[in-house]
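Appendix B. Raw example, untouched.
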Amino acid sequence: MTHLSETATAVCVLLIFLVPLAAAGLSLINAGLGRSRSAAHSMLSSLCILAVAVLVYFLCGFSWQGFAAGPAHVVTVAGKQWNWISAEPFFFRGLQSEGSPASLAALLQMFSVGLAALIPLGAGTDRWRLGAACASTALLAGCTYPIFAHWVWGGGWLAQLGVNCGLGRGFLDAGGAGCIQAVGGLTAWSIACILGPRRGKYAMDGAPAAIPGHNAVLVLFGCFLTLVGWFGLNCAGSILNASAAPGAVAGVAIDTLLAAAMAALAAAAITRARFGRPDASLCANGWVGGLVASSAACAFITPAAAVLTGLVAGAVVTFSVEWLDIHLGVDDPAGSISVHAIGGIWGLLALGIFARIPGDSGQFVAQLVGVATLLGFVLPLTYSLNWLLNRFYPQRVGAEGERQGMDLYELGAGAYPEFVIHREDLTQG
């Protein structure tokens, strides 16, 4: 895309300004699903993570990601050119900021990389040091995110699968189910494995203990904010990444809302059938999981397909949370892995299943290649980077920090000083 009309530019700017509400919603969800004595630490971590992500992306992230039709490094294989990384200058130098598609893409990506960086915070709740979270964010914003995003949105080799291999239109991801959500979710998986579970989470025999979130109201209010933010994310992404017309944003918003609504109802129905009553935290996870799954295909599917996408997302997320907790021993307080990694991967596959694109022969295969790249490259990369970071700068807070709570230990004050904070884990091993 080399030019946008004034109308499209204005619509894009307004939509992009909604995206920070998605970050606010995820921050509230992460804080609400953690312990009360770590709530202020969680919210401050969210703010610092966003700040670090934006600055590192400005420093070098955009240079690696670039935008479609921008300068890039290519390799020639079997007579075909494959674009593997951008060649933009650092510090946004040379970026035209007068409403050009490149400047709009840079603005959207600054918010998007911050959103991706917030996702691992939910998996590291109650035990992830603030400094370590910021250092891990720098790795994501400066390396993991821009590399994969270039392959998808910057004219990279995944986007070229259609031209070079005849696989539909190449790997597609209009709103970031893969680039934002799955990358963030797979990083969350790495962080959860490196940090290990919270004290008292698992008994000696491996049986998990329930550690409920401290404030369901924050969690559910966060769900409403994420909806508004996702309208901006999916609609702006569809215009900039999928060449959708500004008039198509209503259809994109409809698909987004339907997927979230169906996913939340699916989670409510499943938890009521299994436990006798709906579970608020799992319904919230289902809601956000539906938003995540809608992001890939929101510009390419019908409303009926969006409902099916949300139905599967709600079911998959609900069962995945339990599976990771009980069978794999992964302590993920906010369900970040299930919601963003697994929900995002399902959304990418749903595009290949439900999308109706002219000349889409092989589109599902292109989506599979993208998913394989996430699992076979992004996950090992983000785990390795965070493992190395942990060797030089331990990411988990000490035992005393968990006993006191992250608020008192790292910030010196709690989020709720006028209330008595229950210290249930002091009686556990």
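End of appendix B.
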